[in-house]
Design a protein that fits this description.
The protein is mostly helical. It has three domains: about 25-275, Alpha Horseshoe (Serine Threonine Protein Phosphatase 5, Tetratricopeptide repeat); about 300-480, no CATH class; about 500-595, PDZ domain (Pdz3 Domain, Roll), CATH 2.30.42.10. Helices cover about 50% and strands about 5% of the residues. The protein has helices at about 35-65, 70-100, 130-140, 150-160, 170-190, 215-235, 240-265, 275-300, 305-330, 335, 340-370, 375-380, 395-400, 400-430, 430-435, 435-455, 570-575, 595-605, 610-630; strands at about 200, 210, 515-520, 525-530, 535-540, 555-560, 560-565, 585-590, 660-664. β4 and β5 form a beta hairpin. The chain contains 19 helices and nine strands. Strands 3, 4, 5, 6, 7, 8 and 9 form a seven-stranded antiparallel β-sheet that branches. A two-stranded antiparallel ribbon has the order 1-2. Keywords: Coiled coil. Belongs to the RHPN family. This is Rhophilin Rho GTPase binding protein 1.
Length: about 675
Amino acid sequence: QRNVGPPEQTGEPGQSSDPRRIIPNCGCDPLAQTQRSKLQHRRARINQQINKEMRMRAGAENLFRATSNNKVKETVALELSFVNSNLQLLKEELEELNSNMEVYQTDSETINVPMIPLGLKETKEVDFTLPIQDFICEHYGEDSSAYNQEIKELMELRQAMRTPSRNQAGLELLMEYYNQLYYLDQRFFPLHRTLGVLFHWYDSLTGVPSSQRTLAFEKGSVLFNVGALYTQIGARQDRSAVAGIDRAVDAFQRAAGAFNYLKENFSNAPSLDMSSPSLCMLVRLMVAQVQECVFERLTLTTADTHFTSQLRLAQEAARVSDVYVLVQQTMTQPLMKDYVPFSWASMVQVKSEHFAALSHFYAAAALCDHTRKNQESEEAFLHFYINVPAGPSLSQILQDPEKRRRLGKAHLRRAVIRHEEAMRVHSLCKVLRKMDILQDVLALTHRRSLDKYSELDREDDFDETAEAPEIQSLTHQKPEITPPDFSTVQVTDIFQKLGPLSVFCARARWGPVHVIGLRRREGGLGLTLRGDSPVLVAGVVPGGCAEAGLREGDYIVAVDGQDCKWAKHAEVVHLLKSCGDRGVELSVVTLHSHDTQRRAAMLSHNKDKENTRQHFLDGAKGQSSASLLNWNRKKKRDGGSGTKRLASTFSLPFGSIRDAEVMY
């Protein structure tokens, strides 16, 4: 299993392991009147209206099934028809907003084919206050009012991640909240009960609401938005320079990685945008856009117009067309056909035709504009086509200028036909017709192919133009699916004050804190300590003063009222030695799995300190992976085995630190 949570922090409370820790309220200003914020506001408003209409429809359908009065049934049926009409209008309005690709494009004046970005999933506000306060009182036995600031910080962080800025800071904000969910799960979500918080999220494309109490739904939705934000960042890059193309490639590859991670780790998602077919479509779309960027970079970096360079451009364009055909096939699957916006499907079809046309244009340019031939040119041309055309061999064609002209003319004919098909599909979509940049690109390349065809056409050319063979697609850079790296943004557990996560977590069960007063005798306090954060009572001396109240395996959480959950071994020893004759009060807790813990400690006592500690940290991360994704976690397919059973958290910390046992 992959580690989906950050490693446990072992430092003092309030100390972040990353000095660049993001301030929770660094999201975009939701009131800022930018084009993107206006679009998000309209999306949020439509989502709320769709939610309202769906509740009305559910109520009307229940009434229709429950009543036996024909008059009431007629009235309800009429109301249902109105509600369904309203829902259809709202969904069409939302589809038009989701199809608005120009808002996310670059402001550069360079003419490039627009990319397809994805809008963020919207969510309602969540109030963690009462559920977390109740859990702290009930489970941890502490005063919940002491954690009001921590709860406020958590809610501010979630509020900020609803409107992330479209840059690296916005991505880090989403990742910070995503990583913070690991600690939230460990602190407040036991295995067999929920916290009572309901998470509401809207489908990214349809606006249909979904709600669940599991934290996995929240985590999956945040990760979806990470991928969506990467698509917006990729679409806004200025692709007129190589540096901008490289940034776009990186963004689209990371978007594909985020969507692919969701696809591999979730199944039976509550919303269609996170279903396996939808995520598969999004991964393929991102890969296709990476391939398109690779072609654009090749056109920029190919300074020469040699024969082999033009052939390479033709094969690269053919590769782009092929991957968009795969995307188009995914979009026409039964579940996706009525889900994907029509403008997306149209854009993908336009691009597949457009790049196929470019492929034939560059093939014609190679054949007709370059007469120099060498061994390398012949070798490249022999592997240029999928199937060898009938008639003269490719070597003969390369030697004869007239045969080269005719084959080039055939390629240009195919190019013009594909350009015209792209323009026809473009004209059928209202959203695409509004995109001036796309229209300019299609018109420019179409005119270029027509002009080239006119140059090769002769008045005495009465022979029927042959059919150009299919070009073998080839790329010099295959797209990579870059998985999300959760360790790039280090966070500190907001509720670190509760104590080390190894002991003070939602999975652990212990008795109430009890205070024991001890007075030093001639033999000392009569107890043996081991470990730190928190310090453990490793043994109680028979007949000693500690025997009356302490048990082996108790954790010391305070000494004379001073919190010691994060205290090191030496610090607790110092407090005990400084008590003098007046005695000392120890606050301790006892885990219910005391006997199991003691046996685990006996087995692990001889292990190396650092190796054991690392094993514990790895176990904590592994636990996060399973517990956060168990909502729809896919089983591993190797050997047919299911999800690996987790080790007990109680058995780990007792023997995880091999400190020398000292009697006090």
